[in-house]
Amino acid sequence: MSTRGLTFGAVASAYEAYRPGYPEQLVDEVLAYAGRPVRTALEIGAGTGKATRVFAARGIQVTASDPDAAMLAELRKHVGPTTTTVCAPFEDLPLSPDHDLVFAAAALHWTAPARRWESVAAMLRPGGVFASFGGQLHLADPDVDAAVDAARAPYLGDDGVPSPDGTPEEAPMQWPGTELLTSPLFTDVRQSRIERQLSLAAEDYLGHLSTVSAYLVLPDDVRQAGFAAIAAVLPEQVVLAGDVTLHLARWS
Length: 252
Hints:
Elements: H1 12-18, H2 24-34, E1 40-44, H3 52-56, E2 61-66, H4 69-76, E3 84-87, E4 99-105, H5 116-123, E5 124-134, E6 138-139, H6 142-152, H7 177-182, E7 186-194, E8 197-201, H8 202-209, H9 213-216, H10 220-231, E9 237-241, E10 244-251
Parallel strand pairs: 1-2, 1-4, 2-3, 4-5
Antiparallel strand pairs: 5-10, 6-9, 7-10, 8-9
Helix pairs in contact: 1-8, 6-10
């Protein structure tokens, strides 16, 4: 787990308040792909449970894992008794083939690449499904986006998370699909996108930025100065492109 991946616990309540959840269509696509009942699932890097709860709402027994106890404490406020929690990084989870589904919501890029796919396969029942989904939020108005980039630049050059394998944004297959396609452990690799737009008040957009790891690793004074500069160029309401990219694969 990278240093940036361990910064979220300090802002667990803000993460819950300002990060968007996941649409029901996402669960529909995962379950349709599975093609058989999904009764048990393991989530990698569950955070405050934004994805946990939409799968648990379908009657799936979810084991939500995360290395940060503060994030899991927030998660437990929003889930029922069918969800269990494990405070551990992905690399320390038991390799038990107990799950019909293993999934990660905007978290897989924080895991160590060594033996990543061997570990996922070892956690799945034969024919089980792996799903990874997420997507960074982007300002939909190019003029507002450019103004925010310019305001942020003296404090932070880029607030995004680069592709772990260097795949460019314009490539037809994105990571982790690129790795899954070359893994002998998985078949039927698919990529799809669920389009989504979100409208937020400027203060809520700044709240969202306060949960982004690139800002969390900045010194407090630099971070606050950056937020003040961004706030000065924002309209009262912003529209975000929040498309969710979904990757699916089956353990062969």
